[in-house]
Amino acid sequence: MCPDGYYTMIRSKDYIFDLRLRMVQHARKHGIRATARAFKCSRNTVRKWVRRRGSEGLSALRDRSRAPHSCPHKLSPDAEKNILRQIRKTPGFGARHLKHEFDLPYGVGSIARVKRENGLSRRRPRKHKRRNDLRAIKQACKPFTRFQMDVKYLNDIPNYYPQMRRSGLPGFQYTIREIATGAQFLSYGDSLSVNYAELTVKRFLEHLRNRGIDTTKVHIQTDNGTEFEGGVVREKLTGFVHTIESLMEATHAYIPPGCCNANADVESVHATIEPDFFDIERFSSRDDFFAKVTTYQLFYNLARKNGSRSYRSPLTILHERDPTLDPRLFMLLPCDLDRTFRSCRVGHHVPGLTDSLRARVDGACGGSVGTECCAPTAVRSEAASVVPATSERR
User: In the chain, fewer beta carbons within 10 Å around the N or the C end?
Assistant: First the structure.
């Protein structure tokens, strides 16, 4: 009847019900003892299934949950409501990120269970091949010497696109990310342009120079996009690469074509900013957009705990790695590239930076926290109040 024994056979979930049904039928015909010998189990096991079949019917032969009837340490309804409230505010955050970012007094597993049971979990696509862990290499870099730059298209974000069309918001994000600390520096424009990329990188390098960084030791890496003049050989004294290497005396390198992983740090920022910012915020105007993105960048650089860097903020990493560097390096605020060009009365496609534009950029980068075209006055004054407190804590 059961050559491998009852306890061996029930390990296969496919045949449990049929095995127990045959056991009950055999017991009714041949008795308890004979059935116990035939199925190689105890007589109490046979009696249990015969009783259950007789009192509860066929459904009683299925497995029952072995979970305890009570769980004293289970989350209370109020605790679950608190977790759900925070999850709905930041739907892109994982359980571990929620706990570390908002100091929730619950376990990571409990937060994950609440997300899963309420259908709020987001499954990330599995990677077929594990990428190399480059954390040790990044930690060996001196802060504010190595950067990656890229452009993020904003017209494919479902929550943001209708607002962009309605309120005239920027369509492209020019991103620079610092490798050692993970800080990000943002600029925005309505179009994809070499001039916008050139203005972004020049403004950024001027800011580093004004904060005591030796730009001859700075290295910037980009892909081969047209906005970075990739794949174009030009004999001229203007342009994106010329601005980096000749005017600012830094170095530039292109990643190999088709090798997106080489710019993984800045790409990860693009993946993070969608659930952290664009999926949450609502914008009433262009000024409102820059006020909120300025607040987000300050939060990201000064306070947000980065999971890929042991849940430390860029400011914390800078204090640990090189406390001699000025923390106001993080205070270059997002720039509205279109407003900068319009205020200088030049078009989008010009041979290079005019003298008036260059003077405006130089003056903007020389300020303590940003430029007049970057953010509203209220946000700039708030940012200025953060820096002294940060310096005192250091």
Answer: C
Q: Quick one: DSSP state of residue 276? A: I
Orientation of helix 32-39 relative to helix 16-30, angle to 10°:
140
Q: Which residue has the tokens 């990310």?
A: 177
What CA–CA distance (Å, rounded) separates 366 from 207?
7
Q: How confident is the model at residue 22 (pLDDT cuts 50, 70, 90)?
A: confident
Helix 286-302 vs helix 377-393: angle between axes, to the nearest 10 degrees? 10
Token pair of 144 as six digits: 């504010």
Round to whole Å and give the CA distance between 77 and 99.
18
CATH architecture of 135-393: 2-Layer Sandwich (3.30)
- pLDDT, tens digit (0-9, with 9 covering 90-100), for 43-94: 999 999 999 988 888 888 888 887 787 777 788 889 899 999 988 888 888 8
Q: Which residues contact 155 (CB under 8 A, 6 or more apart)?
A: 161, 164, 171
Token pair of 192, please? 């994809």
Contacting residues for 142 by C-beta, under 8 A, at least 6 apart? 180, 217, 321, 322
pTM: 0.63
Domain boundaries, the chain: 6-61, 77-117, 135-393
What is the CB-side half-sphere exposure of residue 388 using CA atoms within 13 A? 4
Hey, is 153 helix, strand or coil? strand
- Classify strands 146-153 and 335-336 as parallel, antiparallel or unpaired: unpaired
**Phi-psi label, residue 35: left if phi above 0, alpha if psi -120 to 50, beta otherwise:** alpha
